[in-house]
Amino acid sequence: MAITLTEAAAGHIRRLLDRRGKGLGLRLGIRKSGCSGFAYDLDYVDELAEGDTVFEEFGVKVVVNRESLKSLDGTVVDYARDGLNENFRFRNPNVKAECGCGESFSV
Q1: What is the mean pLDDT of residues 47-56?
Q2: Who contacts 87 (Cβ-Cβ below 8 Å, separation ≥6)?
């Protein structure tokens, strides 16, 4: 099981954590949402919970809970700027379909 960060994503997460002034890393999960069923959920991690799995790349930790890991295994998290827009991008090999707006997906 693995979650991979690109160097761009790790750098952005590091800047977010530095600006916040605390935190172990970023929590990546999924939640029910949208027309296709699920959406990615990101939050800061201040302490680990039972069942968390920690992945580290470029000195940055990503934490995933047991339930989300099944649907996120193999995901590559990237960060991109396109004009005035900037966001995380997820390449998840488990996604079977995405909604037209790109906000939700099914696994």
Answers
A1: 95
A2: 79, 80
Tokens 């605390």 belong to residue = 22
Residues 6+ apart with CB under 8 A from 29: 40, 41, 42, 43, 64, 65, 67, 68, 72
pLDDT > 90? residue 69: yes
Q: Which domains are seen in the chain, by residue range? A: 4-106 (2.60.300.12)
Contact call for residues 27 and 13 (beta carbons, < 8 A)? no
Q: How far apart are the first and last CA of the chain?
A: 16
Give the separation between CA 46 and CA 26, rounded to whole angstroms: 9
Residues 91, 93, 98, 100, Cα dihedral to 10°: 40
Q: In what order do the strands lie in the sheet with 4-5?
A: 4-5, 76-82, 85-91
- The pTM for the full model equals 0.86
Q: Could you tell me the two tokens for 14?
A: 């590091």
